[in-house]
Write a structure and sequence with these properties.
Radius of gyration: 20 Å
Helix content: over 70%
Largest sheet: none
Length: 92
């Protein structure tokens, strides 16, 4: 087994990262989703470019946002594990 190093800085960075993953990024993704949905409403915007947005751009973007949400959930679990290990044993 190798050397294990733990610093308060590492713990602080993992905590900040977890906060961004659990609070800030989901909020941004939610806002993007909401604005995209509203922009897709032909009552607010219509025409050739709007139809392209509704039919091609937004469906792909929405799928990408859903994938990001899933990736963030996985990253959250990993960072939580890292934070727990740093707190208890120095990240072995």
């Amino acid at each position: 087994m190798g050397t294990v190093k733990k610093t308060d800085f590492a713990h602080d960075q993992a905590t900040k990262m977890l906060g961004i993953i659990t609070s800030e990024l989901p909020a941004v993704i939610g806002k993007l989703n909401s604005h995209g949905q509203q922009l897709s409403d032909p009552n607010h915007w219509d025409g050739p470019l709007a139809r392209q947005f509704r039919g091609e751009v937004w469906p792909q973007a929405r799928q990408d946002l859903d994938r990001m949400r899933g990736a963030l959930e996985q990253l959250q679990k990993q960072v939580q594990t890292i934070l727990t290990r740093i707190s208890h044993a120095g990240g072995e």
